């Protein structure tokens, strides 16, 4: 018996009706389980199971506080005796995120106005609801202080840089982290901070925004949430649009409290940087470690945000700038591309061969017969894209001949796929760690195939978390 098996009983006890159908929803970035329950009269509600009772108690209390402040949140209908299961209003399935992805960086006026409404709601959450939030219920520390900022920065270091095998100097990186924390210390942190205020956590019902997944909120600065929503990687907003939306937020905020635009704009850029580093850490963990594809796909846009923020030079972070310069950006294939897409992977055999969701299988080449640079200390922190590793492979292996044979084997299939109008082909290169030999082969295979054929190439270094 599963611990959430009492969900149907909870629904019947609350509504007096029986559950006709229980539909699990896909997991996203949390361990909570969600279900859509359909009753015998076709009424639907959402059910959640979360064994973290403290997190649930924060959610229940924050929901009531937001409702009292006239903020749209799903109603909580019933809670199990053990506080692990609960029923909430079914808002449907339309996320603001869906409109953002469809807009692909070019939002229409309707979407712009939606964002302005969302930012006005955010100001009310932070200020009006923030006055009445019970911060003693916050998970972990109740305040977004320098310790919390350090955790975000460590997330970037340990879950992104280390998983992506991007070389850095620990002491120099920590010095830049200290600069960031000192710059953030002057921000007023007496407001409610949603913590993950972005379009995936904003649902639309009858074109009205509703807010979900705020149980991780705490007391903090205004600008973190503003930066989170306006610098969301998938939004691809232009700087002009970000500034327009920022101004609309300031207009809404000034109706509630006095606000200095210039000071808040400086904080906006600083917290955009902090948030971007935290997001890259999350993408590293969810993408590299948990192998969730859509997190890996978001990395190029987040890296682009990071490089654009660093280019503004509003804060002196020499080592983070040097580290960022080592991160390649591979732009994703446009959704409307209708030709042949060749997806090229590098991977570690220890973590399994990549799954081909389109064709059920593709070419897989084993690079483990080539001499492994990873056996030597001087190459362990490098990858197959670094010059020292490339020089080693060319001097101590037959990898270029191996790669030429792989191209010779795959090329006739590409020609056939082009002739017959097929849309997808997958080619994977594996080695022991997915860091040196397979990365070199996948990188060079993708470059050469892209030059030889009229195709779109998607390159994914799975264990490095780089790709599209």
Strand and helix map with partners:
Blueprint: H1 7-15, E1 19-24, E2 33-39, E3 44-49, H2 53-68, E4 76-79, E5 85-88, H3 96-103, H4 109-127, H5 146-161, H6 170-184, E6 191-193, E7 202-205, E8 208-211, E9 218-220, H7 223-230, H8 239-254, H9 261-289, H10 293-311, H11 318-324, E10 341-348, E11 363-366, H12 387-396, H13 399-420, E12 424-431, H14 437-452, E13 456-461, E14 466-467
Parallel strand pairs: 10-12, 10-13, 11-12
Antiparallel strand pairs: 1-2, 2-3, 3-5, 4-5, 6-9, 7-8, 13-14
Helix pairs in contact: 4-8, 5-6, 5-9, 7-9, 9-10, 13-14
Low-confidence stretches: none
| Average pLDDT | 91
- The SSE order reads HEEEHEEHHHHEEEEHHHHHEEHHEHEE
Q: How do the strands of the widest beta sheet line up side by side?
A: 1-2-3-5-4
Q: Which shape, going by the Cα principal axes?
A: globular
Q: Quick one: how many beta strands? A: 14
Give a quick account of the main beta sheet: strands, pairing sense, barrel closure. Answer: 5 strands, antiparallel
Query: What class do helices, strands and sheet pairing give?
Result: alpha+beta
Distance from N terminus to C terminus (CA atoms, Å) equals 40 Å
Give the structure's gist in a few sentences.
With 468 residues, the chain is α+β, with helices and mostly antiparallel strands. It is built from 14 helices and 14 strands.
């Amino acid at each position: 018996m599963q611990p959430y098996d009492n969900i149907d009983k909870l629904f019947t006890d609350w509504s007096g009706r029986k559950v006709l159908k229980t539909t699990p929803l896909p997991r996203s970035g949390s361990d909570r389980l969600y279900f859509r329950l359909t009753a015998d009269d076709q009424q639907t509600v959402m059910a959640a199971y979360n064994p973290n009772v403290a997190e649930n108690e924060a959610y229940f209390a924050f929901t009531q506080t937001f409702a009292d402040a006239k903020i749209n949140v799903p109603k909580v209908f019933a809670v199990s005796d053990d506080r692990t299961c609960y029923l909430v209003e079914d808002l449907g399935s339309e996320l603001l995120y869906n409109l953002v992805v469809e807009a692909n960086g070019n939002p229409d006026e309707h979407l712009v106005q939606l964002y302005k409404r969302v930012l006005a709601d955010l100001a009310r959450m932070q200020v009006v609801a923030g006055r009445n939030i019970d911060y003693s219920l916050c998970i972990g520390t109740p305040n977004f202080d320098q310790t919390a900022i350090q955790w975000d920065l460590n997330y970037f270091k340990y879950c992104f840089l280390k998983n992506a095998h991007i070389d850095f100097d620990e002491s120099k990186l920590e010095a830049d982290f200290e600069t960031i924390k000192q710059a953030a210390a002057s921000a007023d942190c007496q407001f409610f901070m949603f913590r993950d205020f972005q379009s995936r956590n904003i649902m639309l019902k009858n074109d009205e925004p509703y807010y979900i997944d705020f149980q991780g909120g705490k007391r903090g600065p205004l600008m973190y949430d503003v930066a989170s929503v306006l610098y969301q990687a998938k939004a691809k907003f232009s700087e002009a649009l970000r500034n327009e939306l920022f101004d609309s937020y300031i207009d809404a905020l000034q109706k509630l409290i006095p606000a200095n635009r210039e000071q808040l704009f400086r904080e906006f850029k600083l917290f955009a940087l902090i948030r971007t580093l935290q997001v890259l850490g999350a993408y590293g963990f969810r993408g590299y470690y948990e192998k969730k594809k859509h997190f890996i796909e978001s990395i190029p846009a987040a890296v682009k945000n990071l490089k654009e923020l660093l280019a503004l030079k509003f804060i002196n972070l020499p080592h983070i700038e040097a580290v960022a310069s080592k991160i390649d950006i591979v732009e994703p294939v446009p959704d409307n591309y209708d030709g042949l897409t060749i997806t090229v992977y590098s991977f570690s055999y220890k973590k399994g061969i990549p799954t081909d969701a389109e064709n059920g299988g593709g070419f897989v080449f084993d690079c483990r017969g080539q001499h492994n640079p990873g056996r030597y200390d001087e190459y362990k922190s490098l990858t197959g894209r670094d010059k020292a590793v490339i020089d080693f492979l060319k001097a101590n292996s037959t990898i270029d001949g191996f790669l030429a044979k792989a191209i010779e084997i795959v090329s006739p299939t590409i020609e056939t796929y082009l002739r017959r109008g097929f849309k997808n082909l997958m080619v994977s290169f594996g080695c022991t760690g997915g860091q040196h030999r397979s990365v070199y082969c996948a990188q060079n295979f993708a470059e050469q195939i892209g030059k030889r054929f009229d195709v779109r190439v998607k390159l994914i270094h799975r264990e490095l978390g780089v790709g599209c």
